[in-house]
Write a structure and sequence with these properties.
Elements: E1 31-36, H1 40-49, E2 54-55, E3 58-65, H2 68-77, E4 83-87, H3 95-106, E5 113-118, H4 126-132, E6 137-140, H5 146-183, H6 189-204, E7 210-216, E8 222-229, H7 246-258, E9 262-263, E10 267-272, E11 280-285, H8 292-335, H9 344-359, H10 371-380, H11 393-396, H12 404-425, H13 433-443, H14 464-478, H15 490-499, H16 507-520
Parallel strand pairs: 1-3, 1-4, 4-5, 5-6
Antiparallel strand pairs: 2-3, 7-8, 7-11, 9-10, 10-11
Length: 524
């Protein structure tokens, strides 16, 4: 039986509690309310009078705890509880009061709404409790009628809804900021597109299952898959129409044609608008209908992704411009050397990059050769002989042995080239392909045993990129015609490289060179 203090707890007063006409607890997610009271009758009566209650077309589901410790365990394991009806006097006279700071501080739960109710208000004066504890309402059981309980519950759930919406919005924006930071550090389109799926899934708190694609051809009749994860993981690089379910392909193509987002019960498909009209679409299989906040977060994330695509395009254009300038400079150096074949710099750049890739698999080199190293050596390798512009034509084209003065002029091209590139590199902050190229230009004639020039460096004192260039440069020079000789037979050139390991060349670079030769599988 309910005690004397609780006899007015659910006295009828006024109209019925708010209800929803067509609410099905089986199909609509209920509000979770935790009853914390040591009297089982209080639990039973609360359920009885609130059985028709609904707020925003969602019913309530009650959980029960009969002590403060039991309540703490339930709250710890189910953070989705919206409201707590908390008795003050249970296992101790102030068990309910002591539970409040544990919920707020120990569990870090600031969003759950706590309504304190007591049958002995004298033991916990209202003014002291309201000011001293982080609760949201205080009711004496003698005044808490069925109608007042309903009113208090509506107010608490409305407050909980607003707080959780704000928290979700803040968390979503924090995820977007983190995701944007992660995306904007990527410079390769395939890695960027792959990261788009991961970061979009993180923002929406779902598994990364989906794809990113761009239209194909001027007619935009199909799209190419740039990145895919989950069920589409094997579809990267393939046409959308031949790789996924026709219904999904149709939805994605409609997004690209209509240029607007699409959300349904299974998929979120974002139209990624870019500044130059090179639109893209990101499809994520969310498996449910997104609510309004989630859609808004997805749209904001989509705008960030689109900016990332624009930045990638601009970055690619800058890279192309730099490469064009490098090729022009390399061509200037080759103009002084009629035996270079006209594409010596490009040949060398390709070979050097392949050797660096092979070296990257070796222990020790894997800490030296990262993505930035590969990018810079590809460009810097084309500039390694820029200092040849200062060598007189009479020295470059001389067919006989150079005298001491002529040899000095030839050897000066290393320092001269480094000085040219270092001066230009000072216009750019940090390490760049010009400063990288300067180190190559200065040291590409140094030899592993210290017999090279201009400074007689040896072993690992020679910059890694210069050690790679040394092998590639000698190989290219041997296998192409010079003014004073024909090209050396391939077998002889390879033998020279092999015999130079440990004296002229870094043995590990020579090993990587032969690994590249084997991978190429060609005779020339």
């Amino acid at each position: 039986m309910v005690g004397d203090d609780d006899e007015f707890l659910f006295k009828e007063e006024g109209p019925e509690l708010p209800t929803a006409v067509d609410v099905s607890a089986a199909s609509v997610r209920p509000w979770l309310i935790l009853i914390v009271d040591d009297d089982p009758e209080v639990h039973a009566m609360t359920r009885l009078v609130m059985k028709k209650f609904a707020y925003r077309n969602r019913p309530v589901q009650f959980l029960s705890a009969y002590s403060a410790e039991e309540a703490l365990g339930i709250l710890r394991n189910d953070p989705g509880i919206a409201m707590v009806l908390l008795d003050v006097v249970m296992e101790t006279d102030d068990a309910g009061l002591r539970l409040v700071p544990r919920i707020r501080d120990e569990l870090g739960n600031s969003q759950v709404r706590i309504i304190l109710r007591t049958g002995q208000p004298g033991q916990a004066p209202e003014d002291d409790v309201i000011h001293g504890y982080d609760i949201n309402d205080y009711k004496a059981k003698t005044e808490l009628t069925a109608q007042k309980l309903g009113t208090a519950t509506v107010a608490a759930l409305r407050s909980y809804e607003h707080i959780t919406e704000l928290m979700r919005s803040r968390q979503g924006m924090e995820r977007i900021i983190d995701a944007s930071s992660n995306l904007f550090t990527l410079r390769a389109i395939d890695r960027f597109a792959d990261a788009v799926l991961r970061e979009l899934a993180r923002v929406l708190d779902v598994a990364p299952d989906g794809l990113v694609c761009v239209p194909r051809g001027s007619a935009r009749a199909d799209a190419q898959i740039l990145a895919a994860q989950g069920r589409h993981a094997d579809s990267v690089g393939l046409p959308l129409g031949h790789s996924v379910d026709p219904a999904l392909a149709a939805k994605v193509m409609e997004v690209l044609r209509a240029r607007q987002h699409h959300f349904d019960d299974n998929d979120a498909i974002l139209w990624l608008r870019t500044a130059d009209g090179r639109d893209a679409a990101a499809c994520l299989h969310v498996g449910r209908s997104l609510d309004g906040l989630e859609r808004k977060l997805a749209e904001v994330m989509g705008a960030k992704i689109a900016i990332g695509f624009d930045n990638l395009h601009l970055y690619d254009q800058v890279k192309r411009s730099h490469k064009a300038a490098v090729i022009a400079l390399a061509g200037l150096a080759e103009y002084k050397d009629p035996d270079g074949g006209g594409d010596h710099g490009l040949r060398l750049s390709r070979l050097v990059t392949e050797i660096a890739f092979a070296l990257r698999q070796q222990e020790g080199w894997d800490r030296i050769i990262d993505d930035e190293f590969l990018e810079q050596i590809t460009m810097g390798a084309m500039l390694y002989d820029i200092g040849m512009v200062g060598v007189p034509d009479s020295v470059i084209r001389k067919e006989n042995i150079l005298d001491a003065d002529e040899r000095h002029q030839m050897e000066m091209h290393c320092e001269r080239g480094a000085a040219i590139l270092e001066k230009a590199s000072r216009l750019v902050e940090g390490s760049n392909y010009l400063s990288f190229g300067a180190a190559i230009a200065r040291a590409h004639h140094e030899r592993w045993d210290g017999s090279g020039y201009p400074h007689g460096l040896s072993g690992t004192d020679i910059p890694p990129a210069a050690r790679i260039i040394a092998v590639a440069d000698v190989y290219d020079a041997l296998t192409h015609r010079r003014s004073w000789r024909e090209a050396v037979p391939l077998a002889d050139a390879l033998k020279s490289i092999e015999e130079g390991a440990g004296t002229l060349f870094d043995p590990s670079v020579v090993a990587a060179f032969f690994q590249v030769r084997q991978a190429r599988g060609r005779t020339r």
